[in-house]
Amino acid sequence: MTTATTNQYKEIISSYYTQCETDREAEGKLETLAADLRRTKKDVVSFAKSSGSTGEPYLGVMFYGAIKVTDLKLLKKLEERKFRRSVLEDLRSGGLLQIKANVKDDAEWMFANHPYEFFKAIVLTNLYHPKKSWTMKEDEENDDR
Could you tell me how far CA 99 lies from the centroid of its own chain? Predict the structure, then answer.
């Protein structure tokens, strides 16, 4: 994942928090945007594939707040390695991937048809959220494994 992609993702998310009066309002608007993007997921994936760092952030926005990986330290290690479909399968089978019920069908479609882009969405939504960037650092400091 490029720095341009992660920075653009952070800008998109941050803009909602800046424009709204409360975090709850921002999250509601982001959830609406995410739902709209999922309705046009084929176009979003096509745009991401064809435009790179311009379109890839929208993969993360498409699943904003809907996918959680329970082991952020592991996800960071996986991000740094070359992607393999087995990475997603391991996250799912290991119970490390939590997906909200209202996006399960879209997540399954992404997993089956565009696993690399789905992995990018998972990484963006879990590791590069501008309001939660402290979470991974805190987890690493408190991790006794």
Answer: 11
Cβ within 8 Å of residue 90, ≥6 positions away: 96
CA–CA separation, 74 vs 61, rounded Å? 22
**pLDDT, tens digit (0-9, with 9 covering 90-100), for 78-88:** 888 878 888 88
Write the pLDDT tens digit of every residue in 124-138: 999 998 775 433 333
Report pTM. Answer: 0.85
Q: Which of 18, 11, 12, 53 is nearest to 34 (CA)?
A: 12
Helical spans, DSSP H, in the chain = 3-19, 23-39, 41-51, 57-62, 72-80, 85-93, 104-113, 115-127, 133-142
Least confident stretch, 10-14, 107-111, 122-126, 135-139: 135-139
In terms of Cβ atoms closer than 10 Å to its own Cβ (0-12, 13-18, 19+), residue 67 is buried
Q: Report the C-alpha dihedral over residues 30, 32, 36, 42, rounded to 10 degrees.
A: 50
CA 82, distance to chain mean position in Å, is 18
